[in-house]
TrEMBL record:
PANTHER family: F-BOX DOMAIN-CONTAINING PROTEIN-RELATED, LEUCINE RICH REPEAT FAMILY PROTEIN. Pfam families: LRR_6. It comes from the Eukaryota. It comes from Polarella glacialis (Dinoflagellate). This is Uncharacterized protein. The lineage of its organism: Eukaryota, Sar, Alveolata, Dinophyceae, Suessiales.
């Protein structure tokens, strides 16, 4: 020993300390022994001590003792790090696997080993094999990817590891599968994945794909045909469909899908499988009806909607292929000149609710809107005809038909961008007055060049709807001017029963006087609980800001407010007035306030925040103060202040 105390090394070896332990019958595998554990630690490596290596070799070769290596994750991580470092420096395989050097205190043991059969060669062979078998699988994966070894040089565990096998196939080709002991499904996945190219997929990707998904990917890339796919894939409708898309309908001969699915795919052509899956055969045939009704199935030729679509596309001659007499009669009457449908605006769903007598009266005219009087049972109607170029004449036709819908109580009408002009405004007014039963009205008349007179007419018409409780009115970009804005105000003020109001007067050159009138009118609607007011780009100054304050102060019952005053002429004084108004809305729970593009400054910005801070019950806040002359310090103060409002659960803040 190093300190000179106790028996010398040769005397210790003479006592055969290792043999006395290894030869203990209780360790041997034949006796059901648990064997030995060779322990690696981060401070002492098993292979750095020849004593340990010798003991491992004797236990394996002579004594029938099962031995395994145990190592911590930290030790594995250090080992992986060393291997990666060696590989980065261009190390060879032998460099990576070489054991530690012999230390000074092992000289006596060297002599003993040399006296044994095969000496160090035998020890090296046994220990190297043991060491290789005990290496973590990830080490082999890295060595294989670097091209330093192949799967036949890996451990038993690594050859059964799917990720290692996949890496070997990527690096050295699919032939490596002959050395794999992975289960057949994993081997099949890897074989198929190899067709995609070395770097196309990672093992993690392969692992989450089932065989059908993987084969579908290969089929779509043109790398696999259905006859080379698995049995389950040939019965999978989505896979079969992909094969037909990639290689043609001839692939159906290899499919084992049920007949209906095969028929869907045959009809589908180039539609996606997701579309086909949710369509029944009749729906699918309607999509493909461009080929003519004679190509459809028996059930499709009896389906009214499909027959109607065929007649719209190919003319009345398609009726000879229809098999339902009543359907034939309805559609024949709906066609113009026995050939084509009048303008294709009428859908089958509309035709379906019109009985034969109505059709015979010739009430289906060139505009689909003229069928509206026939839909006598509906109480809610939504029509979107933005940008259709109706003009005043088309608008008159529309309201002439709608006047007969006496049961309608909920109407949504989008006529934005239809060049109505002042004349169209008068037509609208006359039409609206006839809808006495309406309680919920949404009317979008934006960008229609109504002007002052048109705006006045529309406002007067809406003022007659005394029973209305919910109104959404968009008159943006109509050049109303101060006079038109005043008229809108007067009309709105008469809707005393309204509880939900959305009014958009953006970009109308209202000016301060008209803006004040709008706010004064709103202030008279005492029962309103939800208000959306859009007045951006209207040159509203501080006097309008004061009017806002006075109007909002009257709305004691409001809980939901959206106020858009962006890009007006509000200064610090106007911003202060708006803030004071907001602070009075103690009952409000939802607030959207847009003041961007106004010259508020830091003081007014702070006032806005302080006002909001007083609204303890608010949970939903949207605040836009961009381009309001706030300094960096001002923006910081507002944002930090808002952040303290813990009761707010939904926040949008633009500074």
């Amino acid at each position: 020993p190093e300190d000179g105390v106790g028996p010398k090394l040769e005397h210790q070896l003479a006592l055969e300390p290792f043999a006395s332990v290894i030869r203990n019958p209780s360790l041997k595998a034949a006796n059901g022994g648990h064997g030995m554990v060779a322990l690696h630690t981060t401070t002492d490596d098993l292979y750095s001590r020849l004593w340990c290596v010798h003991e491992v070799e004797r236990a394996i070769v002579e004594e029938d003792v099962e031995i395994i290596a145990s190592m911590s994750q930290k030790y594995i991580d250090l080992m992986v790090g060393r291997v990666e470092q060696f590989l980065g420096l261009g190390a060879t395989l032998n460099d990576c696997f070489r054991a530690a050097g012999v230390q000074d205190d092992e000289e006596k043991l060297v002599k003993l080993i040399l006296q044994q059969a095969n000496g160090f060669d035998g020890l090296d062979k046994v220990v190297e094999n043991f060491r290789r078998e005990q290496l973590p699988d990830i080490i082999f994966e890295k060595l294989i990817r670097k091209g330093l070894t192949r799967l036949d040089g890996a451990s038993t565990s690594a050859r059964a590891n799917a990720a290692v096998v996949f890496a070997a196939c990527q690096a050295h080709g699919a032939g490596q599968l002959q050395h794999a002991t992975t289960n057949p499904e994993v081997s099949e996945r890897i074989r198929l994945a190899g067709l995609l190219g070395n770097d196309e997929l990672r093992w993690q990707d392969i692992e989450v794909l089932d065989l059908e998904d993987l084969q579908m990917k290969l089929i779509r890339k043109g790398l696999l045909t259905l006859d080379g796919a698995s049995t389950s894939a040939r019965a999978n409708a989505a896979v079969v469909f992909a094969a037909c898309q990639a290689h043609g309908a001839g692939q159906l001969q290899h499919a084992t899908t049920n007949p209906e699915v095969s028929e869907r795919i045959r009809l589908a052509g180039l539609l996606r499988w997701q579309d086909i899956e949710i369509l029944d055969l009749e729906d699918l045939q309607m999509t493909l009806i461009r080929k003519g009704l004679e190509y459809a199935s028996t059930s499709a030729r009896a389906d009214a909607a499909i027959v109607f679509a065929a007649c719209q596309m190919h003319g009345g001659g398609q009726l000879e292929h229809a098999t339902n007499p009543e359907v034939r009669e309805r559609i024949r009457l709906a066609l113009r000149g026995g050939n084509r449908f009048c303008d294709e605006k009428l859908r089958w769903q509309d035709l379906e609710v019109i009985d034969l007598e109505d059709l015979k009266l010739g009430q289906i005219l060139r505009l689909g809107v003229r069928t509206l009087p026939e839909l006598r049972q509906i109480t809610k109607l939504s029509l979107a005809w933005a940008g259709e170029g109706l003009g005043a004449k088309g608008c008159k036709t529309l309201f002439g038909a709608m006047a007969q819908l006496k049961q309608i109580t909920d109407l949504s009408l989008n006529l934005k961008g239809n060049n109505l002009g002042a004349e169209g405004g008068f037509v609208l007014s006359e039409g609206i007055v006839q809808l006495k039963q309406i309680t919920d009205l949404s009317l979008d008349l934006g960008s229609n060049d109504l002007g002052v007179d048109g705006g006045k007419a529309v406002s007067e018409g809406i003022a007659q709807l005394k029973q209305i409780t919910k109104l959404s009115l968009d008159l943006s970009k109509n050049d109303l001017g101060a006079e038109g804005g005043q008229a809108v105000s007067e009309g709105t003020a008469q809707l005393k029963q309204i509880t939900d109001l959305s009014l958009n007067l953006e970009c109308n050159h209202l000016g301060d006087e008209s803006g004040q009138a709008v706010f004064e009118a709103i202030g008279q609607l005492k029962q309103i609980t939800k208000l959306s007011l859009t007045l951006g780009y209207n040159k509203l100054g501080d006097e309008s800001g004061q009017a806002v304050s006075e109007a909002i102060a009257q709305l004691k019952q409001i809980t939901d407010l959206s106020l858009d005053l962006r890009y007006n002429d509000l200064s610090a004084e106007g911003g202060q007035a708006v803030s004071e108004a907001i602070a009075q809305l103690k009952q409000i729970t939802k607030l959207s306030l847009d003041l961007q593009g106004n010259r508020l400054g830091d003081e007014s910005g702070q006032a806005v925040f302080e006002a909001i801070a007083q609204l303890k019950q608010i949970t939903d806040l949207s605040l836009d103060l961009r381009y309001t002359d706030l300094s960096a310090e001002g923006r910081k103060a507002v944002s930090e202040g808002i952040a303290q409002l813990k009761h707010i659960t939904n926040l949008s803040l633009e500074l």
